[in-house]
Amino acid sequence: MSDVILETRHLSKVFKGFTAVNDVNLRVRRGQIHALIGPNGAGKTTCFNLLTKFLEPSAGEILFNGADITRAKPAQIARKGIIRSFQISAVFPHLSVLENVRIGLQRTLGTSFHFWKSERSLQTLNARAMALLAEVDLDKFADALTADLPYGRKRALEIATTLAMEPELMLLDEPTQGMGHEDVHRVTELIRKVAAGRTILMVEHNMNVVSGICDTISVLQRGAILAEGSYAEVSKNPQVMEAYMGSADGELAGAHG
Predict the structure, then answer these.
(1) Do the bridges between strand 82-85 and strand 67-68 make them parallel or antiparallel, or are there none, so unpaired?
(2) Cβ 165 vs Cβ 83: under 8 Å
């Protein structure tokens, strides 16, 4: 099996004459954490929406495990093992933490989501749900109402529900957005932990997060890839510094583009 799990070839998206994503060739390697970064308006989220088929590309191809998925629907993409988390926390606030993860696990039963089933029939999933909560350090909160969780813990729960769907490729959309320093650190460590044996592609604005955990970084500017490589490589690139800071003298490490 190829070490490239996801590939785009000449991927482009044009909105009424405005090119949001411009001829992007991306190669995400199996088992890596790969980040898409760039200043605001660089095309990161549009690129993500193309990969998960919430948008149709204007041109180009998307390959997953070597198969062309350019015209696949979002549900087909999810069934293939590409699971996405969103910028806003997408959990059920009035269910318990355990119940949220259990909903994600129902997919692996090969049935539809049986909200109307008696709770007893879903208890077979509890052991796996608790194991996933332990993986994201939420096992102590299993019985808590999700609405009562602090923001950073909600994001951790979202990662647990994403893991419940057994993704081959996890797409994380700005996982630390809106967090205080302590939560950023906790979620960064969590991503590092759950990445073991998995592939993660993430959009992230916080360069300190990216520098600590990512194997490969693709820098977007005006919808095109400006630079690609390790953090050490891209952080020394004068074009990248200029894109973030407005001058080649700028210090990239603290940038929040």
Answers:
(1) unpaired
(2) yes
Entry field: residues in the chain: 257
Residue with tokens 């759950």: 194
Sheet strands (E) in the chain = 4-15, 18-29, 33-37, 59-64, 67-68, 82-85, 169-173, 199-203, 216-221, 224-229
Q: Where are the domains of the chain?
A: 1-81+167-257, 86-166
Q: Given CA atoms 191, 10, 45, 77 in this order, what sign does their dihedral have?
A: negative
CA 165, 85, 40: angle at the middle one, nearest 5?
A: 160
For 208, the token pair is: 């300190």
Domain range 1-81+167-257, CATH class? alpha beta
Per-residue pLDDT tens digits for 163-184: 888 899 999 988 888 888 888 8
CB atoms within 10 A of CB 235: 21
As a whole number of Å, the end-to-end CA separation of the chain is 36
Read off the pLDDT of residues 129-166 as tens digits, 9 standing for 90 and up: 999 999 999 999 999 999 999 988 998 999 998 888 88
